[in-house]
Amino acid sequence: MPELSFIPLQMPLRARELRAEVRAFLRQELPERALAERVRSWSAFDPEFSRKLGTRGWIGMTWPARYGGGARPALERYIVLEELLAAGAPVGAHWIADRQSGPLLLRFGTEEQKGRLLPGIVRGETFFCIGMSEPGAGSDLAALRTRAEKVEGGWRINGSKIWTTQADRAHFMIALVRTGAESADRHQGLSQLIVPLKSPGVTVRPIEDLTGARHFSEVFFEDAFVPDSMLVGGIGEGWKQVTSELAFERSGPERYLSSFCLLEAFVRAAAESDNDQIKCTLGTLTARLWTLRQMSMSVTGELAAGREPALEAAIVKDLGTELEQEIPTLLQGLLDPELLRRVDVDFVPALEYLLQVSPSFSLRGGTREILRTIIARGLAPR
Amino acid sequence: MNAADPALVEAVERLFGDLVGSSHDTPAFRAQFDALESDWSSVEEVGVASLLVPQHSGGFGGSWTDVQTVLRLAGFHALGLPIAETLLVRGLLARAGLEPPSGLATFAITDERQLLESSGAVARISGEVPDVPWGRAAQCVLLELSAGDALGRYLVIDRAQIATVRMGANLAGEPRDTLVLRDASVTVADGPWERLSFLGALLRAAQIGGALECILGLSVRHVGERSQFGRPLSQFQAIQQQLAILAEETAACRCAAAAAAAALDAGDGSFEIAAAKLRANLAAARGIFIAHQCHGAIGMTMEHALQRSTRHLWAWRGEFGNDRYWARWLGEQAQRSAAAGLWSMLAMRGDRGANSEEPAECHPG
User: Rounded CA gap, A173 and B320, in Å?
Assistant: First the structure.
């Protein structure tokens, strides 16, 4: 059985200074940002804000300098990220590129691809989305059917992707496609291609979610062509690439901070309350949040050391999303007329938004049930 | 970041493994503890009872992180020995410049209004102190007289000053005795230490983490071996989902206890200890049920190993702060932080500034 040790990490020297820098930046760039906006967090798409962050050197922070990156330690990036999320900054435009598309290219991309694409990401100007899920392939990703056929000078893509966050506003999609023959092992014959979303043959159709927002889309490929230079790594390496991406995707502070702004606002309103139930609820949420932060930092340390903590990342994501979902639910359960008089004017719209989107927290980036299967498999001796 | 000395871990694992299953480890032992002597001498040999005593006073010179590591192992084995209590008392007294007691030691907290006192440099007290872990066997008792939120006072009571012991046990059969004091002469100690309610909570959080690891291991093994409907239980998704939750709770508890110990090593750990004990309490409750569910009826027998761990978990969950106790304390801390923002407590507390000391190697494991 694996160790599951989650050794706590100590914050780096100068953490206090860096954190203060980020907070000052946010006060200047996003003064008076409404709570109802802040709870949209990393779903909020703001190219202007992304560019400003890029100018400060806070995108691609850990990447090598020769691609424009800051070559900073992973824990410094962590500090910046958690400050942005805790403040509900609109980081959606560059989030995926920074979190996984860039690291994917760094690990598996050609020098040409890195040189061409990474600087734009670092500047906060080039945005990516992830093409994985399909109508027939959600949790069972290997069942995907979008094909890329080898043609002169490149690949011809036919098929469709769905639930692709920011596909209508990103520049590129990294699409997992079937390039090999159908075989008994469905993980074989998959590759990843960088697809410019304005290419002929690519149609993006936004889907309205239950809050009325259109953050994800269906994307159709009809004989869409991409040149050979858009293949990531080698042919048939798609599954391996995707698996290693998942540890990055699953363990960051966004996996437990989605409801944080709401909680902080509630605490301000409830600061004078004598009510035991309120105190105890806040205390319990505090303990769980603090623990998750320690665990998340620990996984960041493992990733930074070049390891692939898939089991630990899945654990953090599952516990984190459970907490994120419970926060709006519990807070709805605690409100009374007294508290309603004390909360921010848009507390209720913010709460209502989070309640409605909260079921998606345990669906996106790997469903709870799949994560738990992965965890259970990781426990058993093989 | 502190990492526990691997040589220590190895020695302690070996010692604890040997002690499990010895004669003291049965229900019959609860009434007598002659076997305790020989087991305790092996504990002394390894030096683990002097873990916190500074090296210049003849101890191991360990940190709170070392304590958490050792007690996690003790919790894993659900050892029936007052290792936690003894190492704490010896360490605290030594660090305060007092002679660390030899033999078993323990500690307790009582409301100062329970005891009658006379004043003077050498205090004399009368009254009863309930729920003292291993009170019957302790050579020395460190007693905190708490006075609400204000800093309490600390008394050191030698065994000879205890008039009577009324023996009792917690639900796991661990000795929890009432000490009767009649005009007992005690020494006042001026400890520069965290309150015993917090330190006790840290000890139990570490032990709970170890016990959860134990039941996780037992459960994984059991569902791998037990078959029904033609296949091992481990192949049923319902079981897999529950085991995953048990693993998550175990990991959360371990991490919280380790982080709290690290915070205490760095300075003030009160917030972190409170969060860790509460997190451990929550993890214990969830974990116990899953482990029993995985084991079926056989896990409900006295003969099976599972009950040793789950009954200790129930007991430790209730000691040094139940859910309500720490949730309320933490909630009030959150309320007090409202102006600066909840985030200031969750994140900024752990930060260091440019003028801090150079850190130890900042990498995991």
Answer: 54
Chain B residues with CB-CB distance to A11 below 8 A:
350-352
* Nearest CA-CA partner of B13 in B284, B304, B213: B213
Residue pair A108/A79 in contact by the 8 Å Cβ criterion = no
Instruction: Report how far apart, in Å, the C-alpha atoms of B161 and of each of A69, A310, B304 are.
Output: 69, 57, 41
- Nearest chain A residue to B326 by CA: give it: A283
Across the interface, whether the CB atoms of A283 and B327 are under 8 A apart is answered yes
Global pTM value: 0.93
For B:275-334, CB contacts with A below 8 A are 275-276, 278-279, 282, 323-324, 326-334
CA distance B352 to chain A (A): 6
Interface A–B counts its CB contacts (< 8 A) at 217
Q: Hey, is the C-beta of B350 within 8 angstroms of any chain A C-beta?
A: yes
- Cross-strand partners of B155: B143, B188
Q: Which residue of B has its CA nearest to A382?
A: B224
- DSSP for A121-180, please give it: HHTT---EEEE--BTTBSS-GGG---EEEEETTEEEEEEEEEEEETTTT-SEEEEEEE-S
Q: What single-letter DSSP state applies at residue A192?
A: E
Chain A within 8 Å of B272 (Cβ-Cβ)? yes
B4, closest residue in chain A (CA to CA): A7
Q: Is B321 left (phi over 0), alpha (psi -120 to 50) or beta?
A: left
Q: Name the residue of chain A whose CA is nearest to B275's CA.
A: A287
Q: Count of CB atoms within 10 A of residue A275's CB?
A: 14
3-state secondary structure of B364: coil
Separation CA B86–CA B142 (nearest Å): 10
Give just the sign of the alpha carbon dihedral B87, B93, B96, B98: negative
Closest alpha carbon to A219 in A281, A266, A157: A157
Q: Is B32 helix (H, G, I), strand (E, B) or coil?
A: coil
pLDDT digits (tens, 9 = 90+) for B57-109: 999 999 999 999 999 999 999 888 899 999 999 999 998 888 888 999 999 99
- Residue-wise pLDDT for A178-235, tens only, equals 999 878 899 999 999 999 999 999 999 999 999 999 999 999 999 999 999 999 999 9
Please name which of B361, B315, B319 lies closest in space to residue B109, comparing C-alpha atoms: B319
pLDDT tens profile B2-11: 345 778 788 8
Over the Cα atoms of chain A, what is R_g? 21
The letter for the amino acid at A134 is E
What is the C-alpha separation between A257 and B156, in angstroms, rounded? Answer: 46
Q: How far apart are the first and last CA of chain B?
A: 9
Set of chain B residues whose Cβ sits within 8 Å of the Cβ of A16 = 348, 351-354
Q: Are B102 and B240 in contact (CB under 8 A)?
A: no
pLDDT digits (tens, 9 = 90+) for B212-234: 999 999 999 999 999 999 999 99
How far apart (Å, rounded) are the C-alpha atoms in residues B141 and B187? 11
What are phi and psi for residue A357, nearest 5 degrees?
Answer: -90, -10
What is d(CA B140, CA B156) in angstroms, rounded to the nearest whole number? 7
Q: Which residues contact A42 (CB under 8 A, 6 or more apart)?
A: A85, A91, A92, A95, A254, A258
The residue count of chain A comes to 382
Give the three-class secondary structure for A266: helix
**Would you call B341 an interface residue with chain A, using a CB distance cutoff of 8 Å?**
yes
Q: Do B250 and A82 touch (CB under 8 A)?
A: no
